[in-house]
Specification:
single chain, 525 residues, mainly beta, Jelly Rolls, 2 domains, globular
């Protein structure tokens, strides 16, 4: 039987399946709270429920919204948009792309019963604000305007709405009440010039990542900067007035853990929620204990972010944001579970879950040179310390010049799949070198059905991936060589597992994916 796998594999592997009825030792949450790419986190609490937004850049749908009851374990509940913008960059048309761009650094707020999630984009040239009264069950409504306000924070006061944003100099502007744009005669000024200089006069990265809060009658502006020869650093400026003057100080320098938000619990505890660069897996969120002393936020324990937290709950890691999928759908189901995101804007005419029920059919739409130019790559996050993704694919519909399979996706990618060349199929492992695809290994393949698997090891930044195939009735066979994964700025995100099918000669070929199964992997020597 095929369709019995949904959700169970991930939850058991990541959270741990326990049937022992004996008393278990007390557990505490650990950092990172999610060993996966969840950067630029912004957060809001509504009652006893927390909602978190993050960056996914060129992936769509985008601006993911996650929910938690304990600040540690998160599940995806919606996306603020299905499509950021419809242009050549986001559509992968006319030689253009938006790798590493799309939308960045969101803000999320809850005001007078309405949730606001916002972002900005050089790809659209706009600032985008999305609203809803129910992030889990009601669609988000878009409001957008020019210009694109870099790394902004929404802030509400006295029935007015402001954006605080910028790089280096931090500026405040008042918005129209209907969110249609910057108010022509409203507040518009720099409130903190060269905000990073409290950390150093010699900065590699000037202040950005603004998040504004009001606490105990004072205004607190959080930013990050990067001193030359140093690390990402958290700086805070405070003032008795929204427009200043502000005084600032460094509040955290530890392993580059920086940029994010602060949040309070219903019990009155405070935490910062920041990310840490961690190689190929991406930028991982950390919870940082926080307290207020003499009117200033104090982050960490003696200036260090602890690995074990004072929160009595076990991490489920990425189980709430990744998912196995048997591609079975019944009435009322989402077409694609929230864990899936497309690389750039998908073309919905070239994929189907109904042409062959129980399978994900992917059809080529055009001729391209390599997988990074391919439309309709369906992706999910990799995660650490180790992770594994497995598919089975049926290839009877391939055309000459087609490639289809499973990819460890970033600029420095590696994939294992089936190639159709001169009427003959072969199993191939390829990787990118100097932005060009290189054939590492191949073997003839006479059948139509084959399973592929990729194991990723991010332990201690090992950042290695191995590739496997399995024919019916046989065991897994390692194939090709080891991909040394590397986080690259052009893609600006952690590695993704991706399902792909692309044509190099003639469009119109198709393949059917039987399932996608994700779980823990193994340490790669």
């Amino acid at each position: 039987m095929k369709k019995v796998f949904i959700g169970v594999f991930v939850l058991c592997c990541l959270a741990g399946c326990k049937t022992n009825t004996e008393p278990q030792p007390e557990v505490y949450a650990t950092n990172p709270v999610i060993f996966a790419d969840v950067p630029d986190v912004a957060m809001v609490r509504a009652g006893d429920v927390y909602y978190m937004a993050s960056t996914t850049m060129h992936m769509n749908p985008g601006l993911p919204i996650m929910k938690s009851k304990d600040l540690v374990n998160w599940e995806l509940v919606s996306y603020a948009y299905d499509k950021l913008v419809d242009n050549d960059m986001m559509n992968l048309e006319n030689g253009q792309n938006c790798y590493g761009r799309g939308s960045w650094a969101p803000s999320i707020r809850y005001h007078n019963g309405v949730f606001y999630a916002s972002t900005f984009s050089a790809t659209s040239g706009k600032t985008h604000i999305y609203t809803t009264t129910d992030p889990e069950n009601e669609p988000w409504v878009e409001h957008s305007f020019e210009p694109s306000c870099h790394d902004h924070s929404l802030f509400f006061e006295d029935d007015k709405v402001y954006l605080i944003f910028g790089g280096g100099d931090i500026r405040i502007v008042e918005l129209e009440s209907d969110l249609s744009g910057i108010k022509a005669d409203g507040l518009n000024q720099v409130i903190v010039p060269d905000a990073g200089k409290v950390a150093s006069e010699n900065l590699m990265l000037h202040a950005e990542g603004s998040q504004m809060y009001k606490y105990d009658g004072k205004y607190y502006l959080f930013n990050i900067c990067w001193p030359q020869g140093g690390m990402r650093t958290v700086v805070v400026h405070r003032s008795d007035n929204l427009t200043g003057p502000y005084e600032g100080r460094v509040v955290l320098q530890d392993r580059g853990i920086a940029q994010g938000c602060i949040i309070d619990t219903p019990e009155g505890n405070w935490y910062a929620y920041l990310f840490r660069d961690y190689g190929a897996v991406g930028r991982m969120p950390y919870i940082v204990p926080m307290k207020w002393e003499n009117g200033w936020p104090v982050l960490g324990v003696d200036g260090v972010v602890p690995d074990t937290l004072d929160i009595k709950v076990a991490n489920i890691n990425a189980a709430g944001i990744v998912a196995s999928d048997e591609f079975d759908r019944k009435e009322g189901d989402r077409e694609m579970p929230l864990a899936w995101q497309w690389n750039h804007n998908p073309d919905h005419n070239f994929w189907s879950l109904t042409d062959r029920p129980g399978y994900f059919r992917l059809t080529t739409d055009r001729v391209v040179a390599n997988v990074t130019e391919s439309k309709n790559i369906l992706t999910q996050r990799t995660f650490g310390p180790t992770s594994s993704a497995e598919i089975t694919i049926e290839t009877a519909g391939m055309k000459d010049g087609d490639y289809a399979g499973l990819v460890a996706f970033q600029r420095i990618y590696g994939f294992i799949g089936v190639r159709m060349q001169d009427g003959q199929k072969s199993i191939v492992m390829m990787r990118s070198e100097r932005d060009e695809p290189v054939l590492i290994d191949y073997m003839p393949f006479a059948g139509d059905k084959v399973a592929f698997k990729i194991n990723c090891d991010f332990t201690e930044r090992n950042d290695k991936a191995l590739f496997y195939f399995k024919l019916e009735g046989n065991d897994w066979t390692q194939f090709g060589d080891t991909l040394q994964m590397r986080y690259s700025m052009p893609h600006f995100m952690g590695y993704r597992f991706g399902l792909f099918n692309f044509a190099t000669k003639e469009a119109g070929g198709y393949v059917d994916f039987d399932y996608y199964r994700v779980g823990e992997g193994a340490v790669i020597e």
